[in-house]
Fold this protein.
Amino acid sequence: MLLESEGGIYTDLDTRPRKPIKDWIPAHLNPFVKAIVGIEYDQLGNLNPSHGFSERISFCQWTIATTPRHPMMTRMVQKVVANLHEYAEKNGTTVYALSIADARVEEVTGPGIWTSIVWKSLSEALGGANVDYRNISGLKNPTLFGDILILPIDGFGTGQAHSGSLNDGEAKAALVEHTSSMSSRKNAWRN
């Protein structure tokens, strides 16, 4: 909610910077960027998603940058709040009475929901144009969709054991490295 209202950068505690924030946006795109999103998983033409992912493309939540009140973040906050109310109602309680142990965090706030919100926001940013995996899969350079900058896999997702991510620690496009080996998705990140 803070990122939605104030803007800025969110990154998990188990990430480390690979490049200064000032270098995240290519200079020629800088005046147009209002949000930055990285790819977490890219199926890259495989017939079925793997590594525990159910979609062809998944956008990472461990690092997000946005301006205040960006429509993508507003949509995410609204969806999470609605999910919390729905989850509480299903469990015969209130949102205020829920505890972390009560909620299935990934189902209520997780990467599947985030990915869905990003897809909707990309389409909206392009005036309702259909945007899907064919526009994103195999992305080699940061690409602007309206005011949302989508980074290739190594932007925020370098060092993973999938998606064509470079595992040698030398990816030139790497801006942030997620060092977690604790994923609910079996084999999604390196150990």
